[in-house]
Fold this sequence. Notes:
Helix content is 29%, strand content 24%.
Amino acid sequence: MNGVVKREDAVNRLSTDERKALNDYVSAYTNYLGVAKTERRAYAEAVKILEARGFKLLADTKTLKPGDKVYRGYHGKTLFAAIIGEEPVSAGVRVVGGHTDAPRIDLKPVPLCEKNGIAYFDTHYYGGIKKFQWVALPLAIYGTAVRKDGTKVDIAIGDKPGDPVFMISDILPHFGQEQGAKTLNDAFPGENLDLIIATTPCPKDKDDDSVKEKVKLHVLRILAEEYKITEQDLVSAELEIVPAGTPREMGLDRSLITGYGHDDRICAFAGLKALADIEGTPAKTAVVLLCDKEEIGSVGATGMDSTFFENSIAELVFRQRKDYSDIVVRRALEASEMLSADVCAAHDPLFPNASSPGNMAIFNAGACMIKYTGARGKGGANDASAEFIARLREVFDAAGVVWQVGELGRVDAGGGGTIALFMSRYGMNVVDMGTPLLNMHAPWEIASKHDAYMTYKAYKAFFCAK
Length: 466
């Protein structure tokens, strides 16, 4: 939109100063993405960014006044950050909300096993993945193990120089006739996505002849010596298998970024940086909400189906007003507005039948607004109001944001959902807006630098609107 007819128009009309701003933004984002490979690490990076910009813990702030910068977190995964506006919180806030979890492979609670001289981690995949995309691919292990005494060990293996990587094996094509005759889903059973960990038996000076699984014993020795954890500590661990490698520029023109976890860290970072870059005091309180568990239905204590957000708004109201009451909080939620910060599917010319002609997101045409998601007959959708979209059109166009509209594929082709429906239940205006992607949910997703920058610019314009 905003006068965009051809994709090359949107890119080529950027000024020299804005091209520099775009490149600076993309550099900051790729640095973040290379570190934030789990929701815990995304949370920790977000806190660093916020504290560097003067944000303080909400719990340490007795009263709130316009311009105050505060944040609170939950379980080291879900984050709420706000800049208090000129208007009271009770008059409603503006929210940009995204998620920092991403499709991956998790370790089972009892993961370590040995089969015919090979030690494996037994796994369970998380979120909607194409299982075949994760085999024969260099993988890394990230996460946290918690001992019985509550002490934690952070683990990150596979990305530092000299680190080993891990793999899930696949059958060679010479023996793959039976596999090739099956559907993709059946050809790669979830129970077979086990990670190769080691093949060397425990050294003789540490060996125990009574132990049959000597490779497993060797792995346990390594875990004890290098990480000071036992096999029992793996029961209370959250270890995630993610692609090894950091984000890379893509294409001869370097116009694209490929990396793991664009969905949805590309929008989460855009919202976070938009909030941190606000100069002065916004008219309405600006809020960034980064949540967990979106890829499995937004369930659990750290998902959007919890009360974390409304509890956080209640605390803002409580610290700003003496006449706090539940009805004030409810009215504040109802008067709020939100951009559900989630990615959308970019049109792929190699799979044209997946897209809705004329209503599809394309690369380099900016951030994409999606009025409704859901499946087929808009099942499970938040359908944004025309009035809210009209107001956003004015905001984005006035700020020079390049944006487009799209749908999540053809009618009857499938669909999906975001956290929008969990926020709209409060009665607030909500619409989905984010960065178009190719390879969504694959180990390596693809985004346009231009669209990533315009997503950030859209979120900032939303926060700063009068």
